[in-house]
Design brief:
Layout lengths: L6 E6 L4 H12 L4 E5 L7 H10 L8 E3 L5 H10 L1 E7 L6 H6 L1 H21 L4 E7 L23 H19 L4 E7 L1 E3 L18 H9 L6 E4 L11 E2 L1 E3 H14 L6 E6 L5 E2 H12 L5 E4 L8 E2 L4 H7 L7 H14 L7
Helix pairs in contact: 1-2, 1-8, 3-5, 5-6, 7-9, 9-11
The structure holds nicotinamide-adenine-dinucleotide and UDP-4-deoxy-4-formamido-beta-L-arabinopyranose.
UDP-4-deoxy-4-formamido-beta-L-arabinopyranose binds next to helix 7 and strand 8.
Length: 347
């Protein structure tokens, strides 16, 4: 019997960038949350900020510093609570690093997911929302918007772990009765909580465009390196579909609530459906911070393609989800976070 009878949502990776914003939104929508994270790419401070923003007592948000690879430690958490559902964010996510150390990615992402699914079966928890990614789609040379039924295929070990994790969950839903699973394929998350107290805090020099641009804007880095200006796009730079992290957080709450409708296994894209180029993102961030952000043009980054945007129709029609925060909001919120937290959570 669990120590706690109250029904909780287990959030793995809940102190990370997207997880922490989602935890705040879940609490604000009345859900009880338990966070599990091994802090390999985060720290506990976001949890303290969530407590403040949600009006909770300090250190009252249940948190367990557990590695999903350790099934006994994770089982102890399952024993303690009565979980109704799981939102599974915990994963390593750097594409380049995954090419250098593929086994670390397979071990962490796949083992963690296998252990989680084993325990969900053991404890009769049958509802899961999973953090998937646009990276699971096979590149389209014509840059057409990806639909959920577009062809799949990955080029990096990271991407393959996401595809395998989706497959593992789909197969469990097929084999067991009463399971519901929603795969959310995010496009390019950015922005920050509008309070300026929560945001993305890359542990190293950022790999992704927007945290890099933001660190140049505040003077921590010298120039943005634009990876190629000879793509087949309106200004020659890569086009991506950026989505505000709070829109993502809201989409997770909607998905979680849909699980109770017994729809089995479902997949949804989360993006705006519109694409912005690298130069357009630099311009938008320059407006948000009030000065020109310097950049230099470098050669293309290996593995990048012209355009990656989603078709958001299925999420609009089935989940009733539509992004509500535009590019200006993404950049002003990102800038507010950057200015208030120049060293991230390590103040
Ligand atoms: P993040 O690194 O900020 O958060 C992931 C969290 O998981 C971190 O706090 C990390 O410490 C934790 N973690 C990793 N391995 C763990 C393990 N074995 N046990 C326990 N905790 C572990 O990343 P994020 O940007 O918040 O991404 C969250 C999820 O969304 C990831 O699964 C990622 O693959 C997916 N995703 C991210 C993006 C993006 O661009 N940020 C895009 C698409 C999908
Ligand atoms: C965006 C654009 C770059 C950095 C990655 C993962 C994907 C998903 C989201 C997790 C591209 C250009 C970038 C820089 C640049 N993550 N760029 N200078 O590559 O679309 O997607 O993050 O699932 O799986 O692949 O995002 O932010 O790295 O790049 O010019 O310093 O910015 O070439 O056109 P990407 P990104």
């Amino acid at each position: 019997m669990p120590t706690s009878c109250t029904s909780h949502v287990l959030v793995t990776g809940g102190s990370g960038f997207i997880g922490s914003h989602t935890v705040l939104e879940l609490i604000n929508q009345g859900h009880k949350v338990v966070v599990v994270d091994n802090l390999s790419n985060s720290c506990e401070e976001p949890l303290r900020r969530i407590e403040k923003l949600a009006g909770l007592n300090e250190e009252s948000l249940p948190f367990h510093n557990v590695d999903l690879a350790n099934i006994d430690d994770l089982r102890a958490v399952f024993k303690q609570y009565n979980f109704s559902s799981v939102i599974h964010f915990a994963a390593l996510k750097a594409v380049g690093e995954s090419v250098r150390v593929p086994l670390a990615y397979y071990r962490n992402n796949i083992t963690g997911t296998l252990n989680l699914m084993d325990l969900m079966i053991e404890f009769g928890v049958k509802d899961i929302v999973f953090s998937s990614s646009a990276t699971v789609y096979k590149s389209d040379p014509d840059g057409r918007p990806f639909r959920e039924d577009s062809e799949l295929g990955c080029t990096s070990p990271y991407g393959r772990t996401k595809l395998y994790m989706e497959s593992i969950i789909r197969d469990v839903v097929g084999a067991e009765s009463g399971w519901n699973a929603i795969m959310l394929r995010y496009f390019n998350p950015t922005g920050a909580h509008e309070s300026g107290t929560m945001g993305e805090d890359p542990c190293q020099i950022p790999n992704n465009l927007m945290p890099y641009v933001s660190q140049v804007a505040i003077g921590k880095l010298d120039n943005v390196h634009v990876f190629g200006n000879d793509y087949n796009t309106r200004d020659g730079t890569g086009v991506r579909d950026y989505i505000h992290v709070m829109d993502l957080a809201e989409a997770h709450v909607i998905a979680l609530e849909r699980l109770t409708g017994n729809h089995g296994y479902e997949v949804f894209n989360l993006g705006s459906g519109a694409g912005q180029s690298v130069l357009e993102m630099i311009d938008a961030m320059s407006i948000a911070c009030g000065h020109k952000i310097p950049y230099v043009v470098d050669p293309r980054r290996s593995g990048d393609i012209d355009t990656i945007v989603c078709d958001p129709k299925k999420a609009n029609e089935v989940l009733g989800f539509k992004v509500s925060r535009d590019l200006t909001k993404m950049c002003t919120d990102l800038w507010r976070w950057q200015v208030a937290n120049p060293e991230g959570y390590n103040q």
